[in-house]
C-alpha cells in the first residue's frame, strides 16, 4: 500500500514543480488548450446525439410498453456517454502528448536537469519521435478499446455494472494514463512500448497511485489542461523511480525501431 501513496506523491511533486517554474507551466499549457477545444466539441456532439444513436440501434424496443423502453434506452444512453468519457480520458493524454511532443520533451528534460544526474536525449529527429509516439499511442488505444468493450458489456450486469465496473474503468484509465505520461521520459532511455509495459507491471500500485487520481481529475471539465504540465513533470520523476538510475542506458536508442 505504500506504493499507492508514493505514486500519488509523485503526482503532487510534479504539480509543485511546475508551479515553482511558472514559465514551464505556461509553456506546457498550450498543447492541452488546443486539444481541449477539439474534445469539448466532440463530447458536446456526443451528448446531443447519444439518445438518437441508441434509438436507432434498438428498433426492437419501439413496441415495448412503459417503462421498459425508456429504462433500456436511458441506461444505454448513459453507458454510451460514459464510454465516450472513458475514451476521452485515455485519448486526451495521447493526443495532447502527440500535439505537444516538442513542448513536453523539453519540459521533461528540464525536470531531469533540475533533479541532477544524466539528462537522456533521444538523438532522433522530431518527425521520427512523432512517428514513434503516434505508433505507440495507437497500440495503447487498441488495448484500452478491448478493455472498454468488455467493461461496456459488463455494465449490463445488475448492481455490478453500476458499482464495480466504473471503478475498474477508472483503474484501467489511470494505469494507461501513467504509461502514456511516463513514456515521454522512458522513450528517451531507449525503452520501447513492450519494455515500458513490463516495467510498469513490476510496480502496479505505484503506477495506479499516480494514474488513478489523475484519471479522476481529468473527468472534471478543463482540469486536464491545467494538470497536464505537472502530470508530465510528475511522470518524469516517476520514471526515474521505475528505472535503475545506475544503469547504463543508451542516449540514442536504436531499439525504438522494434
Automatic annotation (TrEMBL):
Chief subcellular location: membrane
Superkingdom: Bacteria
Keyword Transmembrane helix on entry: yes
Sorted UniProt keywords: Amino-acid biosynthesis, Cell inner membrane, Cell membrane, Membrane, Sulfate transport, Transmembrane, Transmembrane helix, Transport
Pfam families per UniProt: EI24
Entry keyword annotation includes Amino-acid biosynthesis: yes
UniProt-listed InterPro entries: CysZ-like (IPR050480), CysZ/EI24 (IPR059112)
Annotated membrane topology: Multi-pass membrane protein
Residues annotated as signal peptide: none
Compartment(s) where it occurs, according to its Swiss-Prot or TrEMBL record: Membrane
TM annotation in the entry: 24-50, 70-99, 140-161, 167-186, 206-228
Official protein name in the record: EI24 domain-containing protein
Amino acid at each position: 500500500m505504500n506504493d499507492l501513496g508514493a505514486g500519488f506523491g509523485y503526482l503532487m511533486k510534479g504539480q509543485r514543480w511546475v508551479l515553482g517554474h511558472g514559465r514551464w507551466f505556461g509553456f506546457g499549457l498550450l498543447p492541452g488548450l488546443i486539444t481541449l477545444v477539439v474534445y469539448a466539441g466532440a463530447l458536446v456532439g456526443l451528448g446531443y446525439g447519444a439518445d438518437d444513436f441508441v434509438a436507432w440501434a434498438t428498433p426492437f424496443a419501439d413496441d415495448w410498453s412503459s417503462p421498459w423502453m425508456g429504462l433500456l434506452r436511458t441506461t444505454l444512453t448513459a453507458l454510451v456517454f460514459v464510454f465516450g468519457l472513458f475514451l476521452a480520458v485515455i485519448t486526451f493524454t495521447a493526443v495532447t502528448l502527440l500535439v505537444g511532443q516538442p513542448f513536453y520533451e523539453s519540459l521533461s528534460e528540464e525536470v531531469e536537469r533540475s533533479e541532477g544526474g544524466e539528462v537522456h536525449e533521444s538523438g532522433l529527429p522530431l518527425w521520427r519521435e512523432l512517428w514513434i509516439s503516434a505508433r505507440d499511442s495507437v497500440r495503447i488505444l487498441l488495448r484500452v478499446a478491448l478493455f472498454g468493450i468488455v467493461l461496456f458489456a459488463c455494465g449490463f450486469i445488475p448492481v455490478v455494472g453500476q458499482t464495480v465496473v466504473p471503478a475498474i474503468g477508472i483503474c484501467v484509465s489511470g494505469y494507461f494514463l501513467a504509461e502514456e505520461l511516463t513514456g515521454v521520459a522512458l522513450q528517451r532511455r531507449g525503452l520501447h512500448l513492450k519494455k515500458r509495459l513490463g516495467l510498469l507491471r513490476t510496480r502496479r500500485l505505484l503506477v495506479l497511485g499516480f494514474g488513478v487520481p489523475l484519471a479522476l481529475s481529468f473527468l472534471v471539465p478543463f482540469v486536464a489542461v491545467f494538470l497536464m504540465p505537472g502530470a508530465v513533470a510528475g511522470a518524469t520523476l516517476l520514471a526515474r523511480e521505475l528505472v535503475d538510475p545506475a544503469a547504463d542506458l543508451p542516449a540514442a536508442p536504436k531499439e525504438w525501431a522494434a
